[in-house]
Structures are given as C-alpha cells and as structure tokens.
Specification:
By secondary structure, the chain is an alpha/beta fold. The protein has three helices and five strands.
C-alpha cells in the first residue's frame, strides 16, 4: 500500500509540510522521511520498509521529482482508522492512505496485525 502512495507523491511539485498544529505527535527521522506517528513507537521494521520503497521509486521516478534526493517526505501514521479519517487531510471514508502532492505528505492509519 505504501508504494503506490509514494509513487503518486513523487510526481508532485515542491512544497513544505508542517506538523499538524496542536497535535502531540512523535517524530522519527530517516534519511528520506519525517515520520510523524501518534503511537509511542512505529511498528517494527516500518521505517526500513519505507526507505526500501523510496529507494525503488527513486530509481524509477527520480528524473521527474529531483527533490526526492534532497528533501524528506512527510509521512503521517495515525493511531487508527477513525483518527485518520478525522485528521488534518480529511480523506474519503473508503481510503486506507492518501498522498498530498502540495505538501509532499503521505497519510495512513496504523494497520493492526491480523493475527
């Protein structure tokens, strides 16, 4: 699910995203992402998977979005689907992720382990 969202985002133009005002989010920085998450910790391996997806997309889409090499993508991981739907980006109820070109941002709910 993360790959299609990042692919769509990679084609967007330059802009800056800010932290949602008044929200007490935690932030985890990776070389290519500013991951803002409501939970105290990210799911195990989440940032590594995001970096791997970024690396693959950059090879395919880097010429269309040169900012990918220099700027971080803002990745918002909501605690659950309800907080995702009522969050800053107001996604449609059927969605499980959203890319906002103008803000270089991807928003998605934290997915629960089905086990």
């Amino acid at each position: 699910m993360l790959a299609p969202l990042l692919a769509v985002l990679a084609l967007g133009g330059p802009a800056l995203a800010s932290n949602p005002s008044g929200w007490d989010w935690r932030q985890t920085l990776t070389p290519h992402f500013a991951i803002k998450h409501q939970a105290p910790w990210l799911p195990p391996g989440f940032s590594m998977v995001a970096e791997r997806v970024h690396s693959r997309l950059r090879m395919d889409l880097g010429m269309f979005s040169p900012w990918m090499a220099k700027e971080r993508v803002n990745l918002f991981v909501y605690a659950d689907h309800a907080s995702y739907l009522s969050g800053q980006f107001r996604p449609p109820t059927w969605s499980n992720g959203l890319a906002v070109y103008e803000e270089k941002a991807v928003a998605l709910p934290s997915l629960k382990d089905p086990r």
